Amino acid sequence: MDRRLHAFLLNAAVVAGAIGAPSAVLAQDTVGAAADAPQVVEPRVARRDVSTPAIDTENFEAGLFIGTVSIEDFGSSFLYGGRIAYHFTEDVFAEASIGSAKAGTTSYEDLSGSAQLLTNSERQYTYYDLALGWNALPGEVFLGGKRAMPSAVYATLGVGSTRFGGDDHFTLTPGAGFRLLVTDWLAAHLDARDQMFDSDLLGKTKLTHNLQFSISLTAFF
Amino acid sequence: MHPFLITGLLLLASLVPSGAGAAAVESVMVQDPYIDLHSGPGRGYPVTQVVERGGSVALLRQRTDWIKVRTDRDREGWVHRSQLERTLTPGGAEVQLAGPGPESRVQHRWEVGVGAGDFDGADTVAVTASYALTESLFVRADVSQLLGSYSTGWLGTAGIGHIFMPQWRVSPFVSIGGGVVYVDPNATLVQTSNRTNTVAYAGAGLRGYLSDRFLLQAEYRQFVIFMDTNDNEVINEWTVGFTHFF
Fold first, then answer.
1. Given Cys at both, which of A26, A104, B78, B181 links A75, Cβ 3.0 to 4.6 Å?
2. Is B213 at the interface with chain A, CB within 8 A?
3. Ordered structural domains, chain A, with CATH
4. Is the CA virtual torsion A187, A192, A195, A201 positive or negative?
5. What domain range is B156 assigned to?
6. B240 and B156 both lie in a single domain
7. Are the Cβ atoms of A54 and B45 closer than 8 angstroms?
């Protein structure tokens, strides 16, 4: 509307400028005449009706996982946690996860009998991870001849922090997983991840690899 | 812990509403020459059905850019948003589906991002949120966990910033702000107490759009830590991260 008004005034000014240059009084008359003249072009602009359907947008995915984590030098332990993901596109998603496990004992502790390297609370292994994921290999899984379920093999790379042995460690977590959509809203996952952080628990600082495998059940909402 | 988890999973499963039929369904009339119904929500899934112009489909659910529809003949499939952009409601109104267009790069309000970086030798994990006041002016809040070899801690800041060329694919930006830093020296190495100090920062960076939904951001910030003693400490921070906007 503004633009049309603006264009109209501009036209009027040009017309006034071309015709009414000799005297200001004449120019004023011309502008008045232009305003009174019938509109030559009738704008044919229909009103746009726009409807936003109340459709269920399901880009979030949340769930719980259980598995096993092999904490370097401290054996393998039961792992559990939760995850929430947001799907940006069909290819890319972000995921935040937290997990917890209780570390076992080192071989040295087992053989020596009584020596304890860590207190009970220091053995608690907890972490959070903020990851970006890529659905690298989308596909379908067939169950018999009637049922097909969408699936994807994805790769993730995350950063986060792991609390173990009384300290927080910056943790880089590359991983890969498989997602199967059992129904439109329920998914099952298989995940393998490597949580890498520097640790000096056994004297000298080294990069530890803490491999974890998990299965999870998630719901889209 | 096992029984708790199983209960949790069952609870989760029972809480989520199931089935497509539960939601109120809206129907639209196809205006494209035809629309493709894929077997899954992705470009690679095979096309199993086609609905021609004038046909009507019910909209069931949307996942990213894909919308699950049901045809008059009770067949279901996933249609890309772009093919439903020109559909009409039975009343003749245009249909607007959720999702960004190219204009959202400049016009969005909220940004949420995650990054990693270096704060004076300590590794950082950063979460950031910002709100656009105009196309180029924004306010932001950041929380970082600092994970160093000798100490760990937290950094929380709030600030205001300016994007120089918001319409460019890659644009420089600057920001200033202040906050607090909490540092906790590792108990095994150093015997000093925890400390909390206020900080102020000035920073500059580059941001580049990767798609209509997110961008890559790299930033340098210089911090002044106000110490109790007379000499303030100056610290450099580098961060790289992904930011999603909506």
1. A104
2. yes
3. 2-36 (no CATH), 60-220 (2.40.160.20)
4. positive
5. 104-245
6. yes
7. no
- The answer to whether the CB atoms of A185 and B18 lie below 8 A apart is yes
Q: Is residue B238 part of a domain?
A: yes
Rounded CA-CA distance B183/B181 in Å is 6
- B129 in A contact zone (CB under 8 Å): no
Q: Does ipTM top 0.85?
A: no
Report the 10 Å Cβ neighbour count for A75. 14
Tens place of pLDDT per residue across chain B (246 aa): 455 445 554 444 444 444 433 445 678 888 888 889 999 898 889 998 899 888 888 888 888 889 999 998 888 999 998 888 777 777 667 777 767 666 777 778 899 999 999 998 899 999 999 999 998 999 999 999 999 888 889 999 999 999 999 888 899 999 999 999 998 887 655 556 668 889 999 999 999 988 778 889 999 999 999 887 778 889 999 999 999 887
Burial B148-185, CB ≥16 within 10 A → b, else e: bbebbbbbebebebebeebeeeebebebebebebebbb
The β-bridge relationship of strands B56-63 and A56-57 is parallel
B92 with B149, same domain? no
